[in-house]
Amino acid sequence: TNIMTYEAFNGTGMKVTVETTRAADGTRSSWGYTTMFDGKEYPVTGRNGTDTAIVRVVSPKINEIIYKQGDRIVQFLVNVLSADNQTIEVSYYTTNQQTGVTAETHATYEKQQ
Question: CA 4 to CA 110: how far, in whole Å?
Answer without folding.
Answer: 10
